[in-house]
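Deliverable D2.4 — example input (structure tokens):
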């Protein structure tokens, strides 16, 4: 990860979509701090809370939230398409919010992780994203070209696009998702793992059969958690469950063979993975980067009707990186 920004004021603004975007900004923030930069965090929801816990001494601002919900029923595609119609409104709101923050803090750089409205003409604007195109199925296929043109339109408003992956399309993780050309500079910056600066023992003897990573937007986050735990409590397997939530657990899931951590920091996540024989998670891109970094085999279960995760899990299966399961 080569970040050549020194002695500057930098706003780092990750999207609040699960904890993935915030988590992969952790090594970016650490690198900036090591380069004598003043770092200001701008986000919302659980992502903001996560970074406040990781960096309690930094300055924070709250941005408008996208509040995208993953419904529990089978009409997810229709629901998401309807919700995405309102995304430009939020992009406009966050652009207005960042304009006010820039007037106060006067940064030289803005690093936005998938927040398309977080840029300002007085700054050098960098967007971190691994998805410049979409691969939809079913009714969503009709909107694929429109979605691709829209996301590339927003990305081209920045000065640079950083892709957390390797450049060789035949060997990288994102494949066709990051392949489109842009009008701005596009840089592949390698694996961007939240565990980059973590301390962990690679020779740790496993204490658990499984490390379960529970993350992602609601309501699918809770559905995934309940599905996994329901299966787990009926077995003799032991597990450590890393939750991106402080929502209370059902009493029946509180057993001696299952341990839980809410909002684990990077060191804790790394240790949980190393202390387990196998990792089970959604096929979120940040989790994939973490698994690559600690070199752990995994079972990836894509979020239902999320084509990006379906594509990533199938691609990684070809690389024999891990196993993938059908969406549930």
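Example output (designed residues):
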């Amino acid at each position: 990860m080569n970040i050549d920004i020194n002695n500057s004021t930098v706003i780092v603004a990750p999207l609040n979509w699960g904890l993935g975007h915030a988590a992969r900004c952790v090594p970016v923030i650490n690198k900036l701090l090591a380069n004598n930069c003043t770092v200001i965090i701008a986000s919302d929801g659980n992502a903001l809370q996560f970074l406040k816990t990781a960096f309690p001494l930094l300055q924070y601002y709250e941005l408008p939230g996208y509040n995208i919900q993953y419904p529990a029923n089978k009409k997810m595609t229709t629901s998401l398409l309807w919700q995405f119609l309102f995304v430009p409104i939020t992009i406009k709101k966050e652009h207005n919010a960042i304009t006010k923050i820039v007037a106060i803090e006067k940064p030289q750089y803005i690093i936005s992780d998938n927040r398309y409205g977080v840029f300002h003409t007085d700054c050098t604007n960098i967007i971190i994203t691994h998805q410049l195109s979409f691969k939809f199925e079913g009714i969503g296929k009709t909107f694929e070209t429109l979605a691709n043109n829209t996301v590339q339109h927003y990305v081209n408003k920045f000065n640079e696009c950083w892709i957390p992956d390797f450049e060789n399309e035949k060997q990288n993780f994102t494949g066709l998702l990051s392949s489109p050309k842009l009008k701005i500079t596009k840089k592949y910056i390698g694996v961007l793992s939240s565990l980059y600066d973590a301390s962990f023992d690679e020779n740790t003897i496993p204490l658990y059969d499984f490390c379960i990573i529970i993350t992602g937007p609601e309501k699918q986050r809770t559905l995934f958690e309940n599905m996994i735990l329901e299966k787990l409590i009926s077995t003799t397997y032991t597990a450590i469950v890393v939750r991106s939530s402080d929502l209370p657990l059902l009493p029946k899931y509180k057993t001696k063979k299952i341990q839980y951590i809410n909002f684990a920091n990077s060191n804790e996540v790394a240790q949980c993975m190393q202390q387990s024989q196998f990792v089970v998670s959604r096929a979120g891109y940040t989790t994939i980067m973490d698994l690559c970094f600690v070199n752990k085999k995994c079972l990836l279960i894509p979020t239902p009707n999320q084509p990006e995760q379906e594509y990533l899990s199938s691609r990684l299966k070809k690389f024999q990186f891990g196993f993938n399961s059908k969406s549930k």
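The mean pLDDT is 86.
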